[in-house]
Amino acid sequence: MTDNQQTIDLAEKLWSRLRGGKPGNGRHPQICGDIPMSIGRDGTWFYQGGPIGRIELVKLFSSVLQRDDEGGHWLVTPAEMARIDVEDVAFIVVELQNDGNGTDQVIRFRTNIDQWVDLDADHPLRVEHDPETGEPSPYIGLERGLEARLNRAVFYQLVELADEIKDPDSNMVRIGVYSHGQFFEIGRMETVE
Questions:
Q1: What DSSP letter does each residue of the chain carry, written as one string?
Q2: CA proximity to 78, closest of 26, 3, 147
Q3: pLDDT tens, position by position, 78-129
Q4: What are the strands of the beta sheet with 73-76, ordered from one edge?
Q5: Are 91 and 109 a contacting pair, CB within 8 Å?
Q6: Domain 3-86, what fold?
Q7: Taking the domains of the chain in order of start, what are their residue ranges?
Q8: Which CATH architecture is the domain 91-190 placed in?
Q9: Cα–Cα distance measured from residue 20 to residue 144, given in angstroms and rounded to the nearest whole number
Q10: Residue 185 — φ and ψ, nearest 5°?
């Protein structure tokens, strides 16, 4: 496969994810390579090494941001697409709201760009554990392959809402929360009998 064909294939794949199909005029965004924009682990957006101070600009850029299947982050417009460096994820969850109890509960999260997202089947919870320290890093799925990491305070709030479910096939207890009738696991622990 030629480099040009690989570029066209990548453009089609990313365009399809962002816009739901091939461009109507048959043209694909031109890949511009990497640009001097990045997102730090704390969710701060940078351009040429300096923080972008205007939230309106961050929201504008975030509206065309997407992640590819290999974990690369791209700004994609109808004319151009450019890769940016993201240290962990593009967004941080800074607030949690819940309504109801048990299986009827609905949990919503607000990101650092004021985007609200419900914890549900389309926006699942994922918790990674550091292999050395065991420290959890919780994430919620967003649109266009993106994720947001829950900050520590929000994660503690989520843990306070947690239920325990005994796994009938082992001596493990699943710890997690219900939202939109679905159980989202935060972790597991062994039961002592």
A1: --HHHHHHHHHHHHHHHHHSSS-TTS--PEEEEEEEEEE-TTS-EEETTEE---HHHHHHHHTTEEE-TTS-EEEE-SSEEEEEEESS-SEEEEEEEEES-GGG-EEEEEETTS-EEE-BTTB-EEEEE-TTT--EEEEEE-GGG-EEEEPHHHHHHHHHT-EEEE-TTSSEEEEEEEETTEEEEEEEEE---
A2: 26
A3: 888 899 999 999 999 999 999 998 899 999 999 999 999 999 999 999 999 8
A4: 50-51, 45-47, 30-39, 80-86, 73-76, 65-67
A5: no
A6: duf1285 like fold (3.10.540)
A7: 3-86, 91-190
A8: Roll (2.30)
A9: 10
A10: -75, 135
Question: Model's pTM, two decimal places?
Answer: 0.80
User: Which residue, 155, 93, 145, is CA-closest to 118?
Assistant: 93
Dist. CA 37–CA 46, nearest whole Å: 5
